[in-house]
Amino acid sequence: MGEIQASLEEARAPRSRTARQVLLRRLADVVSLPASRINAFERAVAGDLLVDVLRPAPLEERRRVSLRLAPLGELPDALKRLLIRDEPQVAAPLLEDCAALSDADLIGCARDATTQHRLMMATRRDLSEAVTDTLLSWGEEAVIALVLANPSARLTQTSLEGVIALSRSSRDLCAALLKRPEMRPSGAY
């Protein structure tokens, strides 16, 4: 009896996998509709359904949805939170370039996720002072180097002073630090 049950489940697996892929694609399409075709409530409901279907989905399917949603300017909050804290391969398209992510989303992810997530965020265009402060607060040299190399990342004076202090023990940061427009002669001391 147990063998028959296992055989039935095995036979259903490809069908359910295909059905899940179609459902994920359709829900991502609904979330992607322009504001003129879908209201905020409908987008939120579709986003919640997508979150529920994505949680048990395999990594490749989650990555496909992330790639589909990355170009959007607006995403449901629960969906953003799930995808940006997912495995780095899934989070990358959103963390590196998605306009739908606010500073609060990025700061929350920087605090909750891994070094790999922070590395991806460090290369993002137009990083605000609040986000760079959070990224630099971890003291991870690789992240700091990427933030310094990012010409559109804005640094506060406090962050800059912290990086200057770190650069005294790390020569690798010195060259990138010297190229920053925020540097003042007083930082040399």
Write a brief caption for the model.
The longest helix is centred in the N-terminal third of the chain and has 31 residues, at 2-32. The protein has helices spanning 2-32, 40-54, 59-69, 77-84, 88-97, 103-112, 115-122, 129-137, 141-149, 157-167, 171-178. The protein is elongated and about 60 Å long.
Would you write up a description of this structure?
By secondary structure, this protein is mostly helical. Helices cover 69% and strands 0% of the residues. It has two domains: 1-91; 102-189. Helix 1 packs antiparallel against helix 2 and helix 7 (115-122) runs parallel beside helix 9 (141-149). The protein is elongated, with a radius of gyration of 21 Å. It starts with a helix and ends in an 11-residue tail after the last helix. The mean pLDDT is 89.
Can you give the helix content as a percent range?
55-70%
Total separate domains: 2
The pLDDT mean sits at 89
Give the radius of gyration. Answer: 21 Å
* Net shape: elongated
What letter string, H or E per element, gives the SSE order? Answer: HHHHHHHHHHH
Q: What's the number of helices? A: 11
